[in-house]
Every structure is written in structure tokens, then in C-alpha cells.
Amino acid sequence: MATNANADTGHRSPGAEIGVIGGSGFYSFLDDVTEVRVDTPYGPPSDSLFLGEIGGRKVAFLPRHGRGHHLPPHRINYRANLWALRSVGVRQVLGPCAVGGLRPEYGPGTLLVPDQFVDRTKSRAQTYFDGLPLPSGELPNVVHVSPADPYCPRGRRAALAAARGRLWEPVDGGTLVVVEGPRFSTRAESRWHAAMGWSVVGMTGHPEAMLARELELCYTSLTLVTDLDAGAEAGEGVSHEEVLKVFASNVDRLRDVLFDAVGELPANEERDCLCRNALAGMDPGFALP
Ligand SMILES: [Zn+2]
Which end of the chain has fewer surrounding CB within 10 Å, N or C? Predict the structure, then answer.
């Protein structure tokens, strides 16, 4: 565990207040970045945390797939990632990710800030409340946390305002369907997702958002459409190469939006959203990091 872990009310200065889960393209050019290794009861997170400052706000960056992008979506230790961020003081998380568009109008370069997700993953540890003891001996209670509105309303407003400020008109709301991966969808799956009215498809949005909620963290998803999913286009289907190319060509402006969104977020102690009290009235059975 990080030695500078503290609670909302702690007197020691936190290592970070805001977390960004995304690749090195988001922090590599910051002047003063400190690499911090953090361990958790669930094992190590995807990589070190990289702590830096944006406009006076302390931000922890965590490469979701590890530096060098070696972790496929289903192998990411999501529990360790969120736990590690919280343990250094993070209470609000921005989670940019690449997605496929399920409607022709959501083409490459679309920025969509979802307000719902659908879980179609299969094999991931998706809760801290799994009845298994922690290495500390603490036993998590049976706790049911509501994901009815899975994303932080305050964080969503910050992301939308930041995008508009950069003249990148975002799609406000929509449903992110999260598939297991690492394969893309068949045309039949993709058409089904679209027919259900869902907006974009990705591989990492769950359980990331839900685990954040279980730790009373604010979580905001920013999805960047890198391709039209198989059912929404007439060509050969999605290629990994195409995804990387579109992501690379948008990473600079996505970083600008993320940094502006950081500045729009409230101080941690001034959070007034549902996320902060996600466990109100429930005893998790263990101390949050
Ligand atoms: Zn919130």
C-alpha cells in the first residue's frame, strides 16, 4: 500500500485527488511526474501511478493496459486499479476509452459521454463484496450497491463542458455496452447491440465504473469512437490497426479535454453527488483505502 494513503478527512496531503485511467499519451509530456508503485490486497494494478499536476490539481495517471499496452481488457486487474487510486487520495476518476460506434452518426472522432452501461462481460472479478477475506483478515459483508445511474453527474457535466470549450461537440448521454473482448463483435452481435438502442461498444467500461462506485469514487466515462462497429458499417469490419490510428490522431485533443475537465471538477471534500455516499447505511466490512 502507498504510505501516503489517507481518508477524506486526513491531515496529510494526498498524493493525488483526481485519477485518470488512460495511456501514457496523457501524461508523458507533463513537466514533473512522479512514479509511485502501489500494491493492493488484490495484487498490483496495471502499472505504477504517475503523479503530476494540472492547473494546481494533483492528478494520478494509471495506464489501464500497462505501459507498452500488454494487458488485454479481460486481464486488467480492475479491482487493484481503483483501490490503488483511492489509496493515494483519489476520489474522482476520469476514464477515457476507445469504443466502436453503433450508429452511423457516431463515426470515428465522436466523443460520447455515456450515462448508462450494459454489461456483457463474462469472466471478470467485478466486485469488492465477494465474501472472500482480505489479506488483512477483514471479511467483506454482503453489500449491494446501486448502479442505476452508474456515472457521476458532476463529472459528466465537467467532461461535457470541457469538450464544448474545445469546440468538440460531445454526445451527451448514451449507453456503452461492454463486451468481454479481446475480439471485436460479429455483425450479428453488433446489429443486436444497435437494435437494442445502445450507442457505443467497448471492452473496459465494466467493471471499472462499478468498482469505483463500490469505493465511493466519482467515475466519469469519456468514450472516443475509433471505428464504426461491424453492424454499422458496410466494409470489412473493425481492424485493430484502424482503432490505433484513429485514437492516435485524437489523443492530443482528448488530452486537452481531460485536462480541462480536471479543472472543472469540484474539490474532493466538496463533492455533493450520489457517488460520495454510495455505501451510506451499509457496512462494507473492511476499511476503504
Ligand atoms: Zn460523483
Answer: N
Domain coverage including residue 232: 18-277
Q: What is the CATH number for 227?
A: 3.40.50.1580
Residue 51 lies in a domain: yes
Domain count, the chain: 1
Residue 136 lies in a domain: yes
Annotated ligand binding at 203? The verdict is yes
- Percent helix, percent strand, percent coil in the chain, to nearest 5: 30, 20, 50
Chain-centroid distance of CA 110 in Å reads 18
CA of 91 to the centre of ligand 1 (A): 9
116-144 pLDDT per residue, tens? 999 999 999 999 999 999 999 999 999 99
* 183 CA distance to ligand 1 middle (Å): 32
Q: Write out the catalytic residue numbers.
A: 227, 229
The answer on whether 229 is annotated among ligand-binding residues is: yes
Determine the distance separating the centroid of ligand 1 and the alpha carbon of 104, expressed in angstroms: 31
Nearest-angstrom CA–CA distance, 125 and 259: 30
pLDDT tens for 137-169 read: 999 999 999 999 999 999 999 999 999 999 999
> Is 65 annotated among the ligand-binding residues?
yes
Q: How far is the CA of 150 from the centre of ligand 1 (A)?
A: 10
Structural domain contains residue 289: no
Sign of CA dihedral 210, 211, 214, 220: negative
Asked, for residue 224, whether it belongs to a domain, the answer is yes
Give the pLDDT score at 26. 87
Note if the pTM is more than 0.90. Answer: yes
